[in-house]
TrEMBL record:
UniProt-listed SUPFAM superfamilies: Homo-oligomeric flavin-containing Cys decarboxylases, HFCD
InterPro entries: Flavin_trans-like (IPR036551), Flavoprotein (IPR003382), UbiX-like (IPR004507)
Protein family membership: Belongs to the UbiX/PAD1 family.
Entry binding sites for FMN: 11-13, 40, 89-92, 124
Protein name per Swiss-Prot or TrEMBL: Flavin prenyltransferase UbiX
HAMAP family attached to this UniProt entry: ubiX_pad (MF_01984)
The reaction(s) this protein catalyses: dimethylallyl phosphate + FMNH2 = prenylated FMNH2 + phosphate
Keyword Repressor: no
NCBIfam families: PRK06029.1, ubiX_pad
Length: 187
């Protein structure tokens, strides 16, 4: 079955992860039925600030306003399989953990959890306080996956993009898409 995926982008540092995920999903289109995107206001500001562009405007995916509760994935009946929040701010994590569905991102995450589908949070902040850690525990207990924006070095990445792709590749694995990437100890 081809996947229906929601990508939510929030105002944590790491717009590069969102950009690379959107690019990679585009490359894997044959395995995907639909990608829907929603960005918080801060996500747009952080993207402009960190990447010096507005490339989120260049993707062909359908973008939804963050207060558009008429979006299909605001209801479980639309049957989206997976939601990735990338990067995921501590504010968004906290609102999900608290069940505060006051915008489309939190509502969609709430729906994914109640329907027992896959919610992947590419959480980013450092250091973490106890509230962040407890919120991660709560979301994990509810079935969500905390996939922190922590790159790995054992593939010996040479550029910032390659380093960021070590996180994005793990997200693609978690979504369950087939793709080529570095695999530890494989030829
Ligand atoms: C440049 C920049 C970097 C930020 N980085 C982080 C971060 O890494 N983690 C985080 O939780 N918040 C970060 N913030 C703060 C969030 O953007 C802010 O808490 C916001 O309210 C989150 O709302 P949102 O989740 O709806 O996007 C950053 C803000 C700016 C301007």
């Amino acid at each position: 079955m081809k996947k229906k995926i929601v990508v939510a982008i929030t105002g944590a540092s790491g717009a590069i992860y969102a950009n690379l995920l959107l690019k990679t999903l585009n490359r894997l289109q044959d395995q995907i039925a639909e990608v829907a995107v929603v960005m918080s206001d801060n996500a747009k500001d952080v993207w402009r600030f960190e990447l010096d562009n507005e490339d989120f405007n260049n993707y062909d995916y359908k973008f939804y306003a963050k207060n558009d509760f008429m979006a299909p994935f605001a209801s479980g009946s639309a049957r989206f399989d997976t939601m990735v929040i990338v990067p995921c701010s501590m504010g968004t994590l906290g609102r999900i953990a608290g069940g505060i569905s006051d915008d489309l991102i939190i509502r969609a995450a709430d729906v994914i959890l109640k329907e027992r589908r896959k919610l992947i949070l590419v959480a980013r902040d450092t250091p973490l306080n106890l509230i962040h850690i407890r919120n991660m525990e709560t979301v994990t207990a509810a079935g969500g996956i905390i996939c922190p924006a922590i790159p790995s070095y054992y593939s010996k990445p040479k550029t910032i993009e390659e380093l960021a792709m070590t996180v994005v590749n793990r997200v693609i694995d978690l979504i369950g898409l087939e793709h080529e990437s570095y695999r530890w100890n494989e030829e």
